[in-house]
Every structure is written in C-alpha cells, then in structure tokens.
C-alpha cells in the first residue's frame, strides 16, 4: 500500500501543471441583499480577485442560518440559476462563492442516511444538473462525480456540478482575513496530521494515507493520544478535532501560514458561524445546554479561521464518517497545486449532504 501511494504522489506531482485551474471569470459570487455583511464581503472578495461585476449575483432572503426547503428552492437556488442563464454563465462558471448572510442549512425531516437536511452549499452544487431537468432525490447523500478525480481537471460538462465554497466566520475581520491570506498562499511550512490515539479505523487509515502522500521532510505525524498544539509554520492540518477525547481546548495555538487549510472528522463543526463566549471550551456533553454551543459540544470550524487558517471544511449536521471529507485526497491535491475548491471536493464523497467548505475557491499553493 505504501509503495502504491508513493507512486500516486509522484504521478500527481508530474501531472500538476496540467491540473492548475482556473480564472476569476469562472467564479460566481452570491450576496444577500438583506445582509450588509454579505454585501460587504462579496464586494471585498470580488475586488481583490478581480472577478467581473457581471459575476456578482444578488439574492433576497432573510439572513438566517437555517431555512425551509421551499425557501431554499425559491429564494436561493432559483434566482442563482436564473442569473446564470440570463448572463450566459451556466457553462463558464465552475465555482460559486457564498457569503456570510446567505443561509447555511436547509431544514429537513428524516433520520440517518434518509435525512432530508443539507447544507445550502452542498445542495447548490447540484444546480448544474437541476437546470437540465435532472430529478435528484431530496433525502440522503448523492454521489459526488468529482470524488477521487486526482488526475482530471475540473470542467463542464464532464463534471456536472458547481464547486461551492463560502466566505464566513465570526466577524467581518475574520472573513476579510480569509481573502487576504488566500492571495499570499505559498507552498511552504509543515503538514500536520494528528491521529486519534492508536485506534484501527477508517479515519485513522485515511490520515495515515494522507501522511504517506505528503512531503516527508515537511510532515508532522502523531499517532499517540497526544493532541498536537503550539506548532509554528503550519500549511495543512487534519485530525479528529473534538472527537479525539484528548482534545480539551478550542484553539490549537498554531502559527498558521497564509494559505493554510484544515479538515477534521467532526459531525457538527459548521453548525453555526456565531461566536461562542470566550469562556466556552470543548469539555461539554451531549444534551447539556450549559456546556454546548448551538446545540453541540463539538469543535467549531470557524475557530480555525479565527486563529489564522485560510480555509476549513465542516458539517452542519451528522454526515457519518464515510461522508466526511477525506484528508488522503484533500491535502495531497492541495500540495500538488490544485486550487482550494478542487482539492476539497476531490475528497468529499457526496453532495446534497452536510458538508461546507470555507475559503476562496481559487486559492492555491505556488
């Protein structure tokens, strides 16, 4: 297995120049007319990345985190689709960037893998197919056509989807910091991979495989019950987050380099982008509102942004481990020169599900 994975790493490096994407005119920025923060961040990002004004789409809906499916369909999906068609951007646009103030979660009934809920971001990836009349089930995850596509450039119509990310965080300063750091991304620093004790499970296997595919001389790998913290010069990080019972604190006190990304196996770390109290820590228990934040005691994706990371993945509700982002695809792809959106979606097994990717889709290591 190790030999095979090392070969894949070499192959990925050799093909990287052909896989480098894409240009600002292939990005659609979505802002919410009812959110001043959304409009401000959307314009800030559009200006910094020189995205054409004709690629700025304004929707009009309540700036709440959770919406009913009917609201999602009529107030988010439909106007974005109409905008793309009217501007002749359906094929040209590859990436959609949502901004803080655009709803985060689509409410739904059902349980387990028949859950009808999803993140707005993940649901919107399928707009490309829905605009062509493809009927897609509401309940449960839908296979991601770009999953595991290490050696193929993302393009339409080969991959019938949009890659959707968002610019979000606790404060406007946090969100602008995401944009600013993305412009400075360089391929330097350490890749940090922190396993959950010495357990044998799929998640730890994926983390070990990620480590095999990263530059050995820049890798920090821990397979003990220790939680890695206080590391300088971090460019990438993968772990179990608060699902590692040894993790007791929100912040890792890393020095994150511009362009640094983070991913973790946590069910609800993108449940909200509202900031917890400064006194809140990861020592709560499920069902105890006094020790939870936004209904969960788990770690928060936005904490990584607050601390200085330039991108992070998360889940709005339980995705189950098999549908969490896969670090063995994400980190090596990003190291090879793939942009942020392609790197993360290459490692996300399903869409119309719970996943969220926070960051500039065009960010890549140079």
Q: How are the SSEs ordered, and which strands pair?
A:
Blueprint: H1 2-19, E1 27-32, H2 36-49, E2 56-59, E3 66-67, H3 69-86, E4 95-99, E5 105-106, E6 118-119, H4 120-124, H5 127-130, E7 142-143, E8 163-167, H6 172-182, E9 190-194, H7 202-212, E10 219-222, E11 234-239, E12 256-264, H8 301-307, E13 311-315, H9 327-336, H10 340-346, E14 350-351, E15 355-358
Question: Which structural traits does this protein have?
Answer:
10 helices, alpha/beta, 366 residues, six-stranded mixed sheet, four-stranded parallel sheet
Question: Main β-sheet, in a few words?
Answer: 6 strands, mixed
Total domains: 2
Individual helix count: 10
Q: Helical proportion?
A: 25-40%
Shape call = globular
Quaternary state reads single chain
Report mean pLDDT, rounded to a whole number: 93
Distance between the ends: 29 Å
Strand percentage lies at 15-25%
Question: Given the helix and strand composition, which structural class is it?
Answer: alpha/beta
């Amino acid at each position: 297995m190790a030999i095979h994975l090392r070969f894949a790493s070499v192959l990925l490096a050799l093909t990287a120049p052909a896989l480098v994407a894409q240009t600002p005119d292939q990005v659609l920025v979505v802002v919410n007319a009812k959110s001043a923060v959304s409009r401000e961040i959307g314009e800030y990002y559009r200006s910094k990345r020189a995205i054409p004004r004709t690629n700025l789409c304004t929707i009009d809906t309540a700036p709440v985190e959770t919406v009913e499916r009917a609201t999602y369909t009529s107030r988010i999906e439909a106007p974005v689709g109409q905008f793309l068609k009217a501007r002749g951007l359906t094929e040209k646009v590859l990436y959609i960037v949502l901004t803080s103030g655009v709803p985060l979660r689509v409410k739904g009934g059902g349980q387990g893998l028949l859950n009808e809920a999803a993140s707005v971001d993940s649901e919107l990836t399928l707009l490309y197919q829905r605009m062509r009349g493809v009927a897609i089930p509401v309940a449960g995850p839908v296979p991601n056509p770009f999953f595991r596509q290490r050696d193929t450039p993302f393009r339409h119509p080969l991959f019938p989807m949009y890659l959707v990310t968002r610019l979000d965080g606790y404060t406007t300063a946090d969100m602008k910091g995401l944009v600013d750091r993305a412009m400075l991304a360089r391929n330097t620093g350490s890749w940090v991979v922190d396993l959950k004790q010495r357990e044998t499970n799929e998640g730890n296997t994926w983390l070990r495989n990620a480590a095999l595919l990263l530059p050995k001389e820049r890798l920090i790998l821990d397979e003990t019950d220790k939680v890695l913290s206080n590391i300088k010069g971090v460019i990438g990080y993968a772990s179990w987050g608060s699902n590692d019972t040894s993790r007791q604190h929100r912040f890792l006190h890393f020095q994150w380099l511009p362009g640094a990304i983070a991913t973790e196996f946590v069910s609800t770390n993108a449940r909200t982008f509202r900031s917890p109290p400064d006194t809140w820590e990861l020592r709560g228990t499920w069902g105890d509102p006094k020790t939870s934040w936004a209904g969960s005691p788990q770690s928060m994706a936005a904490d990584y942004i607050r601390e200085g990371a330039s991108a992070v993945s998360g889940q709005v509700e339980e995705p189950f481990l098999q549908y969490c982002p896969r670090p063995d695809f994400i980190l090596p792809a990003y190291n090879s020169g793939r942009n942020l959106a392609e790197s993360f979606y290459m490692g996300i097994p399903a869409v119309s599900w719970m996943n969220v990717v926070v960051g500039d889709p065009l960010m890549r290591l140079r």
